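Dear colleagues,

As part of the handover before I leave the project, I'm documenting each prediction I ran so the next person doesn't have to rerun anything. This entry is a single chain, and its sequence is reproduced below.
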Amino acid sequence: MHPVIFENITHRYDGINVIKNFNLKIEEYLITVIIGKSGSGKSTLLQMINGLVKPSEGNMYVFGKKLDYARILDVRLNIGYSVQGTSLFPHMTAYENIALPGKIAGKSKDEIEKRIEQLMDMVELPKEFKTKYPYQLSGGEQQRVGICRAILLNPGIFLLDEAFGALDPDVKNEIHEKILKLQQIGPRTIIVVTHDMREAIRLGDRIVMLERGELQQYGTKGDILNNPANEFVKRFVSL
């Protein structure tokens, strides 16, 4: 099964096409990286997956079904979503932030507690961090809390939208290692949006090259690096 399918997708803002006749089938249990310059439409594609953006034309299929926007909450509960800055609630502790999706889904306190401990172990967050507020955590620690919250419900799809853009290189590498470790422990479909080619090569099993809303190339990192489809891809990978 392809957990995400973009079928003849076009999207317009103020009459301007930002996504143009986009077709792609995302492969299951792999990390797919969507990369392109700022304004190329990367985040728009990601937001279409969890229904934050409805395409002007075409169809979105998620978990094998055409997206039903009247029941989008049911879909979102099986999609983890992490963005740059993590969007943690400042008035909540790390524990309360991570637990939030579980409470929304009606999980028991014991279930939530057990899952949080498991996730904090996996991303190497000390247990005493449960009671800390976001302002008491470093950027990397906040990002790890955000990742724990996004995958608390063990979602089938995990979306990362420029989630590491504000981190310094050492912390970014550390978080990359945590993502790859999580993928080894329990593979899931992960879709990453970035403008950083080094990040794409580090994380991606498959890479989507996007320019001005159009698909330029899709393939393995070897395909992209060794057989660029056109001049745009060739220039981008050489940056």
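The longest strand covers residues 16-26. The chain has two domains: 1-78+157-239, 88-154.

All the best with the project,
I.
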